[in-house]
Amino acid sequence: MLRIGIKRDAESIDLNVEGRLMGPWVRELEKCWQAESLSGRERPIVVNLTSVTFVDSGGRALLTEMRRAGVILVPTGCLMNLIVDEIEAQVENARPN
Length: 97
Description:
Radius of gyration: 13 Å
Strand order of the largest sheet: 1-2-3-4
Structural class: alpha/beta
Strand content: 25-35%
Largest sheet: 4 strands, mixed
Low-confidence stretches: none
Shape: globular
Distance between the termini: 40 Å
C-alpha cells in the first residue's frame, strides 16, 4: 500500500510518500507527479521519502526519472539514503561535461 499526500505552498509542491513504492503504486506516484508538473505552477517539486519502507526496480526507475526532471528527493534512514545517493550519482554521471 502507498499513501501520497500533496501540500502546495508558495515555495514548493511537496509530495509526501508513505509505504511501499512498488507495482501499481509506482504508476500512482507518477500520475501525481505528472499532474503537479503540468499544473503550470513554477515551483519546485519535493518528494519526501521519509516514510517509504520499500522500493522495487520500477519505483527506483521512476525516482531516477523524477530526479532527472529536477524533482528534489528527501530521504531518511539507511535504505532511502542509499537509494537516493545511488540515484544522485547516476543522474550526475549522466550529465554532459
